[in-house]
């Protein structure tokens, strides 16, 4: 009896083996098909990423000062763009003496050192003048973003240098500057009396109120015997504090953006920017005869920035308009 049962089980097992094999083969074929679909998707994503990377490279090259010149009929090639970018980086580099002098300070996190050049009005969107006073101009070396730790678009900067003034009036932002005098940068703290106005300042979030606030700061607000404004004189061996509130981008209905191509273009580029609320202290450690300055800085506080609320009667536009 036991032998009969054992024989029956063996027969059943042998009969099932082909079925199991067929099922495994079917699963293998199905998996290969799924893998092929995934591979195609990955390849498509890689192609898309490569296209995006190439576009970002071209945009970045333009953004950082590599432009089509008047003397050229064709745009620069990718190789030429890289070479021009390398040259510009060398021209923008701080004086080696400053890099050595402040190396201990720069080892600290959230610090930086950069040169800022006067805006001589030589740059346009895709063209650079190279004659007269513009012959030695550094393309887009006059605007800087502390939020991104890099030179910035002409409308997404935190600070710019023009006519010996440091100015902060970029697109869709609320910013404040204050002259603290000749005090050591490392001693500045958010608990200082001079920082009280900056730290306690509450940015408006409704468009009309934000515009009124922008105008008030442009005219200057005096608090505790200090003037808080959107521009200060650039003075050597002087320390400043600043708060840059870069309003966040938000999705808007088409009714808010109809017919405003310039604002739409600028507003859409906000998604490539770091939109935060940043408070810093900085010091002009060097000022050259030709007007360029070297700035040493440190971050004091960062937080999430608000969004502007556009009312029913408000079209998409800047807070300073």
Instruction: Assign a percent range to the helix content.
Output: 25-40%
- Mass-distribution shape: globular
Structural class category:
alpha+beta
Oligomer classification: single chain
- What's the number of helices? 7
Mean pLDDT: 79
Task: Name the helix and strand elements from N-terminus to C-terminus, one letter apiece.
Answer: HHHHEEEEEEHHEEEEHEE
The spatial strand order of the largest sheet comes to: 1-12-11-10-6-8-7
**Rg, Å, rounded:** 29 Å
SS elements, strand count: 12
CA(first)-CA(last) distance: 99 Å
Descriptive overview:
This protein has 321 residues and is α+β, with helices and mostly antiparallel strands. The protein folds into two domains: 1-63; 94-304, no CATH class. 35% of the residues lie in helices and 22% in strands. The chain has helices spanning 2-63, 78-92, 96-101, 103-106, 196-200, 207-219, 261-268; strands at residues 111-116, 143-145, 150-151, 159-162, 165-167, 173-181, 221-223, 226-229, 231-233, 238-246, 276-287, 293-304. The strands form two sheets. A seven-stranded antiparallel beta sheet has the order 1-12-11-10-6-8-7. The chain has a five-stranded antiparallel beta sheet with strand order 3-2-4-5-9, with no helix packed on it. Mean pLDDT is 79; it is low at 1-21, 60-72 and 124-131.
């Amino acid at each position: 009896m036991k032998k009969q049962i054992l024989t029956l089980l063996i027969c059943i097992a042998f009969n099932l083996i082909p079925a199991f094999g067929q099922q495994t083969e079917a699963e293998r074929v199905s998996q290969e098909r799924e893998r092929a679909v995934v591979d195609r998707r990955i390849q498509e994503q890689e192609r898309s990423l490569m296209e995006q990377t190439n576009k970002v490279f071209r945009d970045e090259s333009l953004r950082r000062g590599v432009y089509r010149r008047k003397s050229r009929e064709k745009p620069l090639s990718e190789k030429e763009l890289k070479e021009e970018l390398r040259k510009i980086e060398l021209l923008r580099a701080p004086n080696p003496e400053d890099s050595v002098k402040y190396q201990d300070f720069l080892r600290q996190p959230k610090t930086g050192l950069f040169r800022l050049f006067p805006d001589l009005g030589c740059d346009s969107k895709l063209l650079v003048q190279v004659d007269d006073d513009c012959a030695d101009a550094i393309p887009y070396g006059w605007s800087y973003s502390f939020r991104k730790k890099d030179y910035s678009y002409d409308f997404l900067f935190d600070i710019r240098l023009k006519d010996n003034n440091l100015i902060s009036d970029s697109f869709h932002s609320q910013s404040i500057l204050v002259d603290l005098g000749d005090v050591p940068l490392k001693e500045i703290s958010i608990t200082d009396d001079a920082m009280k106005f900056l730290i306690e300042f509450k940015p408006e979030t409704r468009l009309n109120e934000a515009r009124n606030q922008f105008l008030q700061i442009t005219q200057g607000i005096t608090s505790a015997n200090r003037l808080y404004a959107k521009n200060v004189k650039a003075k050597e061996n002087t320390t400043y504090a600043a708060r840059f509130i870069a309003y966040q981008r938000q999705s808007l209905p088409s009714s808010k953006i109809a017919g405003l191509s310039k604002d739409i273009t600028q507003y859409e580029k906000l998604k490539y920017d770091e939109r935060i609320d940043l408070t810093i202290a900085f010091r002009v450690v060097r000022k050259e005869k030709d007007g360029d300055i070297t700035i040493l800085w440190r971050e004091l506080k960062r937080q999430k920035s608000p969004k502007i609320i556009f009312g029913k009667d408000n079209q998409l536009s800047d807070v300073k308009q």
